[in-house]
Design brief:
There is one protein chain. This protein has one domain: Rossmann fold (3-Layer(aba) Sandwich). Helix content is about 40%, strand content about 15%. It is built from twelve helices and eight strands. The N and C termini lie far apart (about 35 Å). Helix 3 packs across helix 4. It is α/β, with parallel strands linked by helices. The longest helix has 14 residues.
């Protein structure tokens, strides 16, 4: 867990599957706002010890970290599969939530799961892979999907550090609504893991007030941390101009691509 406590709106960062919270380190470096990089449960334990964890176990572990954090208002920044966890976490912390940013993130419909958010052919393939091979993809898939625009050194760090997750964070369904706060989707235009059509579907599910594009692959926090940091700060600054009227309509500057 990394923490910088100030009297400002902060950021809670949620990484994707197989990754660790330190993947955000270049983004939060020099960021003049409180930052919490939440950890997933049993990260240093064996694969077997994590195998029985449910999606709710992940959320409870994450919520405990946020509950202990002294920053009262924050924006959740979620990446990839972390979008599913973020929606569930947001539903528990809506009284403290100032905004929601999805970075190439999975956003299932209410009652859906990560797997259910995938297009039909990929959904069937993913279900079969999870049953037979578990949650750690082969190195070739990590290279082509997650790391297509990274250097060899960066790619090797991701490959060597990849941590298999519990199957249930892919398959457990979440019964929550999209948070009623200003929302931004960061579309990754060179993403080989979440292609354009899938990201369009996720954007439709989230219905954000704003969509911004980064010309990166699936891991912009590694390939372009300064660009991602700029997007986050722009969103945070825009919150000052945000008002919510009594009928529940967000008055937010629309900047869709």
């Amino acid at each position: 867990m990394q923490e910088h406590t100030q009297e400002k709106i902060g950021f809670v960062f949620i990484n994707g599957a197989g990754l660790e919270s330190r993947i955000w380190s270049k983004v939060v470096e020099g960021l003049d706002h409180p930052c919490l990089l939440v950890e997933f449960p049993l990260r240093k334990s064996s694969v077997d010890s994590r195998s029985e964890l449910s999606l709710e176990d992940y959320v409870v572990h994450m919520k405990k970290q946020v509950d202990e954090w002294r920053t009262q208002r924050f924006v959740i920044v979620a990446h990839s599969l972390g979008g599913v966890l973020a929606l569930r976490l947001a539903s528990e912390l809506n009284h403290r939530l100032a905004g929601f940013i999805a970075v190439g993130a999975a956003i299932p419909k209410n009652g859906g799961s990560f797997v259910s958010a995938l297009p039909f052919p990929k959904r069937i393939l993913m279900s079969a892979i999870l049953r037979k091979l578990g949650t750690k993809p082969p190195e070739s898939a990590i290279r082509t999907g997650l790391c297509n625009d990274l250097s060899e050194d960066q790619t090797m760090e991701v490959v060597k550090g990849f941590i298999p997750e519990a199957v249930r964070i892919y398959t457990d369904r979440i019964d929550v609504s999209i948070p009623f706060v200003p929302k931004l989707y960061v579309k990754l235009t060179k993403d080989k893991e979440f292609g354009p059509s899938l990201q369009r579907k996720m954007i439709s599910n989230l219905s954000p007030q704003s969509v911004q594009s980064l010309e990166t692959g699936h891991l912009p926090m590694i390939s372009n941390p300064e660009g991602l940091k700029h997007v986050l700060l722009t969103f945070l600054n825009s919150l000052r101009n945000t008002t919510i009227n009594t009928r529940g309509v967000g008055m937010y500057k629309h900047a869709c691509d």
